[in-house]
Amino acid sequence: MTHMEIKALENASRAAVWTEGYDGETHYAEVLKALTPALFILAAAVGLMLAIL
């Protein structure tokens, strides 16, 4: 690959634009929805560990 091809690929990757705007707010409902599977996994692990005791 030549230097020009590498530079063209780098510029093409920079051209990809984030389509959603950042509104400056924390969306707690979306964060909680994203963390729900992890919380279920942790709760199951705690339950199994308590069952072993």
Please describe the topology of this protein.
Elements: H1 3-15, H2 28-52
Report the β-strand fraction as a percent range: under 5%
Percent of residues in helices comes to over 70%
Q: Pairing-aware structural class of the strands and helices?
A: mainly alpha
| Mean pLDDT rating | 83
Q: Biggest sheet: strands, sense, closure?
A: none
Shape: elongated
Number of helices: 2
Count the strands? 0
Task: Report the span from N to C terminus.
Answer: 60 Å
Radius of gyration from the alpha-carbon trace, in angstroms: 22 Å
* Low-pLDDT segments, ≥5 res: none
Order of helices and strands: HH
Describe the structure.
By secondary structure, the protein is mostly helical. About 70% of the residues lie in helices and about 0% in strands. The mean pLDDT is about 85.
Short description:
With 53 residues, the protein is mostly helical. It has 2 helices and no strands.
Name its key features:
single chain, 0% strand, elongated, mainly alpha, 53 residues
